[in-house]
Amino acid sequence: MSHTTPSNKALVPFVSVDHMMQLIHSVGVPDMLRELALYIEADFKRWDAFDKTPRVANHSETGVIELMPTSDGETYGFKYVNGHPKNMSEGLQTVTAFGLLADVGTGYPVLLSEMTLLTALRTAATSALVARNLAPKGATTMAMIGNGAQSEFQSLAMMAIAGITHVRLFDIDPAATAKCAQNLANTGLVVTSCDTPQEAIEGSQILTTCTADKAYATILTDNMVGAGVHINAIGGDCPGKTEIAPAILQRGDIFVEYPPQTRIEGDIQQLDPDHPVTEIWEVLAGKTPGRTSDKQITIFDSVGFAIEDFSALRLVRDKVEGTDFFHPLDLLADPDDPRDLFGMTMRAKP
Ligand code: NAD
Questions:
Q1: What percent of the chain has pLDDT over 70?
Q2: Residue-averaged pLDDT of the chain
Q3: Residue 328 has pLDDT above 50, yes or no
Q4: Is the pLDDT of residue 1 over 90?
Q5: What's residue 10's pLDDT?
Q6: Per-residue DSSP letter, 7
Q7: Is it the case that residue 6 has pLDDT exceeding 80?
Q8: Which of 42, 73, 249, 350 stands 20 to 30 A from 176 (CA)?
Q9: Helix and strand tally (H, E) in the chain?
Q10: Looking at residue 77, what DSSP letter applies?
């Protein structure tokens, strides 16, 4: 804290990457994922309370930078997040993020947090929460296609929340699969590394695609997908970036977070703009049935929505209270007279 900061000044808690790692270990990964799922479910169940907008995206040739705002009228939140598939080959993350919560009454920030780890956790918790509602009853096995940064989180969430006991890994880069298999050793999951996506899908009731390529990729082709499975499509989350063959989308029932955003960014960008989809909050709130038959193909066309980040930041705010897992940040000006902002600068005059 600088010598110019009065001791009674309101400071904003800042949760660094290091603090987030400490928080995750103090809670435990499975419990953190379960608690996140509870917070996300609670917020999705009060869908109408939220101000909603598709995220604001700045596209470039190499990636995208996005702002994801929402508010429930009392608390405002936003996340800054990027998606740069080529970063990985340069030793950088494909996805990095940070986010903020603020008090709507005053507009003052109440929490600033890293969200790279938190995004992986909340994406996985959302996937598993949705799979618990849509996957065939008694599902035990998941194919995990794309074994990058999100993959262990996805696998562990499916175990903690959706009852998955076996994961079958595939990535075009065997080093990614080896990394994922090693990280999942001794977690309680039975892990099989596969040489082809077809082999990974064999005997799997949940098919997760979590690849990164800024292209209309086809990770799942029509002939690979039989009746009765649940597809958790994570990686197609940007215009011009998809994973699922249109024919599968036509055969299945599609569930999305927020249609105005998913129609721009999700796999359904390949379909007619009025192709029927179900909003997943309606299933979570019990307004619409999820899976209705054993033969049905259910598809969660996930792109990531601002309310999931809001819920995750709410959880972090509640969890760090009373702990040392944050730095108090001097983010708010506090002139003695609110109109004398200039006068406040004199505190630092040499
Ligand atoms: P990452 O770069 O760490 O990993 C991606 C992996 O996909 C790499 O290991 C790569 O080798 C593999 N891959 C690429 N093409 C493949 C193919 N054809 N078949 C099999 N594997 C292939 O990225 P990440 O952080 O794990 O993110 C993965 C994707 O998920 C990104 O596209 C990201 O934008 C998206 N994402 C979505 C959400 C959401 O809420 N829906 C949240 C976070 C990330």
A1: 98
A2: 96
A3: yes
A4: no
A5: 86
A6: T
A7: no
A8: 249
A9: 11, 17
A10: E
Q: How far apart are CA 78 and CA 135, in angstroms?
A: 31
301 bridge partner residues: 233
Band of residue 2 on the pLDDT scale cut at 50, 70, 90: very low
Closest-lying ligand 1 atom to the alpha carbon of residue 147: 9
Single out the residue of 101, 143, 83 nearest to residue 265, CA to CA: 83
Q: What distances in angstroms separate CA 276 from CA 56, 222, 279, 293, 294, one per listed residue?
A: 24, 19, 10, 18, 20
Q: Whose CA is nearest to atom 11 of ligand 1?
A: 173
Whose tokens are 């709410």? That residue is 314
Specify the residue for token string 């049905």: 296
Short-list 57, 96, 50, CA closest to 76: 50
274: Cβ contacts below 8 Å, ≥ 6 apart: none
Is 321 strand, coil or helix? coil
Q: CB 114: neighbour CB atoms within 10 A?
A: 20
- Residue 170 Cα, ligand 1 centroid: separation in angstroms? 12
Domains in the chain, CATH or no CATH each: 12-117+307-347 (3.30.1780.10), 136-304 (3.40.50.720)
Q: Is 237 a catalytic residue?
A: yes
DSSP characters over 46-70:
TGGGSB--PPEEEE-SS-EEEEEEE
Pick from 142, 134, 275, 122: nearest CA to 209: 142
The number of the ligand 1 atom at minimal distance from the alpha carbon of 170 is: 20
Residue with tokens 């000006």: 333
